[in-house]
Design brief:
Blueprint (H helix, E strand, L loop, with lengths): L13 H9 L8 H13 L5 H6 L1 H7 L5 H4 L4 H8 L8 H21 L2 H7 L6 E2 L9 H12 L7 H10 L3 E2 L9 H9 L1
Parallel strand pairs: 1-2
Helix pairs in contact: 2-7, 2-10, 9-10
Protein name: DNA-3-methyladenine glycosylase I
Keywords: Metal-binding, Zinc
GO molecular function: DNA-3-methyladenine glycosylase activity; metal ion binding
């Protein structure tokens, strides 16, 4: 029996298939990964996710495994070294956004405890399932985007936040034909 995936999952890229099959749409509660994915989704602006995904390991090395306590200490010398790093997207605004986001993240954690509590509180801890086809924003992504911007985060527009919600499993947007759509997983479990 052949595997059915969302059409965006490039079958020629094993990294992309691994991401689709084991990460995208899977609820994430790991603080480091939540912070990482927020910044990687921001890095995607104007590019394909596959481009960012292919550079993810380089990002992890370049940005100290997305440790906000280390990132807030980055200075202009560090930014210049990141601008020379061919393993990441060398966009000064996006690089600086990671530093700004680290500061905003730490403030958010002081206010609400954690990014996990903040995000999952919007959906009462339960992933939303999209049954309406391809969506790029929602009232919830609009709301979270607006609030994160007020808190000082950068590269957190509604489209980026919706993609982020998909990536961390707050929204399950696997296509109806995909084996990873919740309805298909439940029917396979019954067999």
């Amino acid at each position: 029996m052949s595997v059915r995936r969302c059409t965006w999952a490039n079958p020629a890229n094993p990294l992309y298939l691994e991401y689709h099959d084991h990460e995208w749409g899977v609820p994430c509660h790991d603080e480091r990964q939540l912070f990482e994915m927020l910044n990687l989704e921001g890095a995607q602006a104007g590019l394909s996710w596959e481009t960012v995904l292919n550079k993810r390991e380089n990002y992890r090395l370049a940005f100290d495994r997305f440790d906000p306590q280390k990132i807030i200490r980055y200075d202009e010398k560090k930014v210049e070294s990141l601008m020379q790093n061919a393993g990441i997207i060398r966009n000064r605004l996006k690089i600086n956004a990671v530093i700004v986001n680290a500061r905003a993240y730490l403030e958010l954690c002081k206010d609400v405890g954690s990014l996990d509590a903040y995000l999952w509180g919007h959906v009462d801890g339960k992933p939303l399932v999209n049954l309406d086809g391809r969506i790029v924003t929602s009232p919830l992504s609009d709301q979270i985007s607006k609030d994160l911007k007020k808190r000082g985060f950068k590269f957190v527009g509604s489209t980026i936040i919706y993609a982020y919600m998909q990536a961390i499993g707050m929204v399950n947007d696997h296509s109806r034909e995909c084996d990873w759509h919740p309805n298909n997983r439940q029917s396979k479990a019954k067999k």
